[in-house]
Amino acid sequence: MKRKATINDVAKAAGVSKGLVSFALNDRPGVSPETRDRILTVARDLDYRPSLSARSLSTRTSYAFGLVIARDPEILGADPFFPSFIAGVERVLLHEGRALVLSVVADEQHEATVYRTLTADARVDGVFITDLRHDDSRIPLLRELGMPAVTLGRPEGAQHGDADAFPAVCLDDTPGIVAAAQHLIDLGHRRIAHVIGPRRMLHATRRNGAFAATLEAAGLPADLVIETDFTAAQGASATEALLDLADPPTAIVYGNDPMAIAGIGVAHERGLNLPGDLSITGFDDSELARYVYPALTSVRTDPLAWGEAAARTLLRLTTTGVADDVDLEPARVITRSSTGPVRA
Amino acid sequence: MKRKATINDVAKAAGVSKGLVSFALNDRPGVSPETRDRILTVARDLDYRPSLSARSLSTRTSYAFGLVIARDPEILGADPFFPSFIAGVERVLLHEGRALVLSVVADEQHEATVYRTLTADARVDGVFITDLRHDDSRIPLLRELGMPAVTLGRPEGAQHGDADAFPAVCLDDTPGIVAAAQHLIDLGHRRIAHVIGPRRMLHATRRNGAFAATLEAAGLPADLVIETDFTAAQGASATEALLDLADPPTAIVYGNDPMAIAGIGVAHERGLNLPGDLSITGFDDSELARYVYPALTSVRTDPLAWGEAAARTLLRLTTTGVADDVDLEPARVITRSSTGPVRA
DNA sequence: CTGAAAGCGCTTACAG
DNA sequence: CTGAAAGCGCTTACAG
């Protein structure tokens, strides 16, 4: 391991000042084409790579983005969203010389601390905000900290194109949930339950709103709603509670696949026939969905594309100061054999 | 947002040189107690936090660790290991002012590129090596790059306490697989198959060795072994292949839970009764394991503890230059209802 | 025990 | 079009 070449080595070898080397490398005007070529050649020959920490100190830029996830590790492990989302983010950052700094915290208490530390240390140039909540404390916090951010979905109250809002990268999940509900209605179901994620999360209530509207448009009540923390455990107990009802549902729509798969487990344990006695749908269309029995009808989003779009948007925001909202392909239902006609 | 206080502000306010401030803050000898107290008080009053990039430039330290995962996002999403492992890592890094830089790459080709970039940019002070492979190219690569590392498990050929080896943080999985196999043997199974992960991965062959030894010790052949890429898809097709055999197994041991759950799906699809017609075991004991039907017998490891131990070891290695190997509680089998006596 | 200074490796006005 | 210099905010020998 020989010493890494510095800008000084390049400058000396090229017979110019280091300022000029910096200009040439950063594609700034004011360098004659011949000089620029010579500098770039020398830099390549010396295998020169600018020091990140030196650049960071000069430019007050870390060349990294942050993702803070406030979820219990148990839930995180069951949820295929984040790995795919992160893979999408990486796919664009890798080529941009940016790194992803990841923080997993158990609760929303520690979350704020982490954001403050990331800011104080200038560890990242911007952050991704996932799992938007009602009255989300992260929005004012990050604004106060002056930390650029991109939200997954649009926060409450924000209008498309709000001047002072963080850019939003949106993947509308309501068409998926509407399609799932309508699919069940079309199959003749009249009592359809909804097992949702935590109500403090925006998408839980938004999806439930879409669900309820679809049922009501068909003249059906949307009164069977159970809130969970997204764990398979609570998916199972919600299913137990629903099936114990005097007038149990003939179909259950779940907020994620692990809960739906747990629901299948509970139904089988009770000797129910699927989808004959009970239809079940999931959400996220994880790989496992098509391999359980019966194969799970689920709502497909595209976390990888979401990650890519979010990364590109944050990159634009942090480099140019502005970035437009992005709308991705909405979610859609994937029909499999866990849903079927209601029994006569 | 007022300007952040710098070491100069503290020095001026305390009436000392900035060198002394640095000494006081870093707990170095040569500062009188009174002066140190005064400096620390002033620093607190000014809400002073040393600039990370300035420190990094001076000390050639990034105060961050790297984790490069070479897996298809699809597989990653189904596998609960990494989220828990990462949560464990975070739990110790958070209090040590270190950050985790995460890279997800699709294949082992890009892996080397990422390690080179992380090193060239001095983006991290050390890395975690997970999913050890046979003849693992990362070991010589990182040694060549001079990048400190900690391995999860001991690499091939390395002896406990090798002077020049990277510290290994080990969680022995063979007791778990041995117990699973023995459990099936005790239940009277004579034809037991093993659906393993990629053979290039150390743990796949190591576990299969333990599996085979257990069967052979009981006078049983261990000839039914199918290699997969760890996806539920290949777990399902391996199950199909096994059940299509003229003399199919009465029990199948899977290398992870998603494959085992897919196996349950295939068995149910064929109208088999579990565990009457077929016993099934998984690996990792994911949350879902206990909520599928029948509840899945699985092998439990502790990824969270693994993450914590790995982080502490890497921290010690990068700060002191040496770190001992660590042995964690070995894996053990958790018996549930997907395994039962072989049918008469 | 304390201070003044050099150095880490960049970027960026400022002169010429 | 090019050079010399200051500055980013720390750490660390070196003197005293």
UniProtKB/TrEMBL annotation, chains A, B:
Q: Which PROSITE patterns match?
A: HTH_LACI_2
Entry keywords, A to Z: DNA-binding, Transcription, Transcription regulation
**Domain HTH lacI-type, chain residue ranges per copy:** 5-59
Domain of life here?
Bacteria
Database matches in SMART domains:
HTH_LACI
Read off the Pfam families from this record: LacI, Peripla_BP_3
Tell me where the transmembrane regions lie.
Answer: none
**What's the protein name?**
LacI family transcriptional regulator
